[in-house]
Amino acid sequence: MNETIVIPTLDVEAIKQDFPILQRKVHGRALHYLDNAATSQKPRAVLETLDTYYREYNANVHRGVHTLSEEATARYEGARAKIARFVNARSPKEIIYTRNATEAINLVAYAWGLANLRPGVRVVSTEMEHHSNIVPWQLVTQQAGAGLSYVPFDEDGRLQLDALDRALEDGRTKLVAFTAASNVLGTINPVKEIVARIHAAGALCLVDAAQAVPHLPVDVQDWDCDFCVFSGHKMMGPTGIGVLYGRRALLEEMPPFMGGGDMIREVRLTGSKWNELPWKFEAGTPAIAEAIGLGAAVDYLTALGMERLRAHEVELVTQAWERLGEIPNLKRLGPPPPERSGLVAFAVDSIHPHDLAAILDQEGIAIRAGHHCAAPIHEKLGIAASARASFYIYNTPEEIDLLVAGIYRAKDIFAI
Ligand code: 7TS
Fold it and tell me: Which ligand 1 atom is nearest residue 35's CA?
């Protein structure tokens, strides 16, 4: 007998109850939050974790021998271990806390880049990156006198891997920085295959997983990536905490990014020695409550199950893609589902995305409008900006109906 694996569907109405903010009203209407790619909402478990930290064991970490400091340190490091398990790192030592994905990329660009880049070598990025995976590389390659080139994407919004291969051919490419999932096109890149091509050419890779870790099961060992970055606030955690995963041997070799307390083993006026991993990269008092809060978010996501979460988003994005496709003069960006993440960016002829977002906001529907910090994507597509609806576990098919009805109303207002 053939056995099919049935993933039990989630009780979305019950899940919504876990998110206090979803009970609020906006302009007298129920809130329909469709801006999850910018930042996600937070479940009660995370809010309570932050509150408990400040009420019961607020103290600095790694410094005190008193009870509160020991408790704070245990939970701060415990959260690191949860995050390591969540993305299947080999060890918590490979998990560096940063402020966000952006800081994690800057850490690699400066610490690894300034030590390894020089004239005659290059970094490769892609045309579908968030600004945070372009600008640090521009700054650092310029400073090092190294080159920087970009892998283009095709009309369907997929990376042109033959162009990547060409960039790898001459052996001058030292690192390729690319996104696992685009925050505008929704493209999910074949990370494992891309990493294999990069490694075959003797280069390293940095995977921007800011839009992947919150929405898909991610296994850094399966990807075999060298660096991987993501932000806590997009995955139900607090703002101010992000993650750099790095292969241990690489992190060991890299010089520190910032100097200060906690990242040193020994300080003399004539010079200093660095702390061991992961603390070598964590200078100063860290975001303690936020790291522990991210640990609570990881617990919440683990209990939901990333496979089930992804299945729910595929259902929503498939419906959104189809329904938006029925609207005249509306252009959807990126490849069709199911090989796309749970968001759809689109442009409606003659309605500026900001006007559309403002009209939807009056109905309690929150979407994002603009270039979504990915101006080069819009430039390539020949549009100034786009509107974007991005989903998470607490969104429902009814909210897509409301979005579509709102777009029709906006079209009426603008009479096109
Ligand atoms: N990489 C990708 C793919 C992103 O989507 C974002 C944020 C970042 C990096 C940077 O994350 P941060 O937490 O360091 O700021 N993307 C978005 C967005 O699409 N709308 O607002 C932020």
Answer: 20
